[in-house]
Amino acid sequence: QVQLVESGGGLVEPGGSLGLSCAASTSFASRYTMDWYRQAPGKQRTLVARITSSSTTTYADSVKGRFTISRDNAKNTVYLQMNSLKPEDTAVYYCHALSPGDMNYWGKGTLVTVSS
């Protein structure tokens, strides 16, 4: 069983920046596709950014140019750098991992609040 632990959420003003981290409890994380999802109150969980085992990245249109996903395989950690934050970015952010055998793992989430 792989555990994912997110950190870095908090309160930030509009236009500010915040970085999230997700640490995986497996030394094989480099083989996994890693994602960040988010869920705002009353809305469905949606994909924010994805990074494959070969470090190919994709982003939701709403965050392109503002968010950057990256990974450090030596630390079994994936990051999400969020810049130019907007109030509509307020949500619980979840880390997700997909193993080569198509097993899905989720973190418990970290709250990001963008407000003045």
Brief summary:
The protein is mainly beta. It is built from no helices and eleven strands.
Proportion of beta-strand residues: over 45%
What is the straight-line distance between the termini? 40 Å
The average pLDDT is: 96
User: What global shape is seen?
Assistant: globular
Task: Return the structural class.
Answer: mainly beta
Number of helices: 0
Order of helices and strands: EEEEEEEEEEE
Low-confidence stretches: none
Q: Helical amount among residues, as a percent range?
A: under 10%
Largest sheet: 7 strands, mixed
The total beta strand count reads 11
Radius of gyration: 13 Å
Please, could you describe this protein's structure?
The protein has 116 residues and is mostly beta strands. It contains no helices and eleven strands. It has strands at 4-7, 10-12, 18-24, 33-39, 46-51, 57-59, 67-72, 77-82, 91-98, 104-106, 110-114. Strands 2, 4, 5, 6, 9, 10 and 11 form a seven-stranded mixed sheet that branches. The chain has a four-stranded antiparallel sheet with strand order 1-3-8-7, with no helix packed on it. A hairpin with a 5-residue loop joins strand 9 (91-98) and strand 10 (104-106). 30% of the residues are buried. The model has no long low-confidence stretch (mean pLDDT 96).
